[in-house]
């Protein structure tokens, strides 16, 4: 309920601001202002009804309502910047012109302002169209790495493994059967030896992921010889966590919560960490200090990026993370860069320790990407 209240309040503020400012560009008399206010009012009403009575709607109907509301929310956010710029122009650059040519100038400014708003609206729609494609058409990135170079015990014939990293699927009203099928097909086309699922498998409400079709895809179609390993993300903690944990079992995954396994016939040590949302999770130094861990190349699967200093101190060879979405939507992604700096995306190294932060295969609602791209990452490892 807190999530709904916050988002609804933000949408209300955006709608009131946009309605007031955009309404100023329309003639005082005529249908355009009435049409704008009616449209914004209907959107808020749909948003309110959809969230309050969500348990009463069939899942498909609820999905349509939520997709519409999420898309409108993003469109509102994208329109704020041009409206702010327009207001600055009207207030300062056109000020003297408006005073000098009062009535005639008012009509001209309204025409110019209306044209600018319309152009911004069209650009925003095009951006959203291509932003959706950047989610629904993920790319496959392939990286080749050699791990365990510093361990004398590994001075032997190297073993090759293909590891698939999938993070931030965010199954939701926007990331559904079609997107999951695309992901599964792309992963299986790479013939991975092992699959690592890096958290945030479900966006918020679990029932979009509990359908028989999605369970069949992830449980029967998504397979690898040495198994599928899951960790939790912060979104798993937001609602119905126990049900989501049971869902991981239903799709044939092995959940790691501060657990250590030695997959692929003990080819390496895999440490799966609980999400940082759990402030009582076991420390990385404690996990890597367990018996037998440092005899193998160490791969850490952790939803949120880990500082390189910690990885190097704990002799971790490779950390695989997600969470950041590489920013997902510009310009909001700049906040992600401020928090995580260079760890927000990509491969980075310090000493013998590496970290790869994936942009994720899905997207949090609203499920669009601007300036980023959904991805599946394949690691060709020599161990």
TrEMBL record:
The keyword Ribosomal protein does not apply. Keywords: Hydrolase, Membrane, Transmembrane, Transmembrane helix. InterPro entries: Calcineurin-like_PHP, Metallo-depent_PP-like, Metallophosphoesterase_sf. Pfam families: Metallophos. Residues 161-326 form the Calcineurin-like phosphoesterase domain. The keyword Transmembrane applies. This is Uncharacterized metallophosphoesterase Cj0846. It comes from Porphyromonas macacae.
């Amino acid at each position: 309920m807190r999530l709904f209240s916050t988002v609804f309040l933000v949408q209300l503020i955006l709608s009131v601001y946009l309605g007031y400012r955009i309404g100023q560009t329309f003639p005082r008399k005529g249908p355009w202002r009435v049409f704008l206010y009616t449209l914004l009012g209907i959107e808020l009403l749909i948003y309110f009804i959809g969230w309050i009575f969500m348990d009463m709607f069939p899942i498909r109907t609820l999905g349509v309502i939520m997709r519409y509301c999420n898309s409108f929310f993003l469109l509102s956010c994208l329109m704020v910047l041009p409206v702010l710029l327009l207001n600055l122009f009207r207030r300062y650059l056109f000020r003297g012109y408006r005073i000098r040519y009062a009535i005639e100038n008012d009509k001209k400014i309204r025409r110019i302002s209306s044209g600018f708003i319309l152009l911004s609206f069209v650009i925003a729609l095009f951006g959203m169209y291509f932003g959706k494609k950047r989610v629904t058409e993920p790319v496959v990135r392939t990286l080749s790495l050699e791990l365990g170079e510093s361990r004398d015990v590994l001075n032997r014939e190297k073993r090759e493994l293909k590891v698939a990293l999938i993070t931030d699927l965010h199954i939701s009203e926007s990331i559904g059967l079609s997107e999951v099928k695309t992901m599964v097909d792309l992963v299986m086309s790479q013939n991975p030896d092992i699959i690592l699922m890096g958290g945030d498998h479900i966006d918020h409400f679990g029932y979009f992921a509990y359908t028989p079709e999605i369970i069949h895809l992830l449980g029967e179609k998504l397979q690898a010889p040495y198994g599928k390993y899951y960790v939790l993300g912060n979104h798993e903690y937001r609602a119905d966590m126990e049900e989501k944990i049971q869902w991981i079992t239903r799709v044939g995954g092995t959940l790691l919560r501060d657990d250590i396994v030695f997959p692929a016939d003990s080819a390496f040590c895999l440490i799966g960490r609980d999400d940082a949302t759990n402030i009582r999770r076991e420390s990385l130094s404690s996990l890597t200090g367990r018996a037998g861990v440092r005899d193998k190349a160490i791969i850490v699967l952790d939803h949120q990026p880990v500082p390189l200093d910690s990885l190097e101190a704990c002799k971790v060879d490779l950390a695989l993370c997600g969470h950041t979405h590489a920013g997902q939507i510009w310009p909001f992604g700049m906040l992600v860069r401020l928090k995580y700096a260079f760890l927000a995306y990509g491969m980075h190294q310090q000493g013998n320790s590496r970290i790869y932060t994936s942009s994720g295969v899905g997207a949090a609602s609203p499920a669009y990407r601007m300036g980023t791209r959904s991805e599946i990452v394949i690691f060709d490892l020599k161990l």
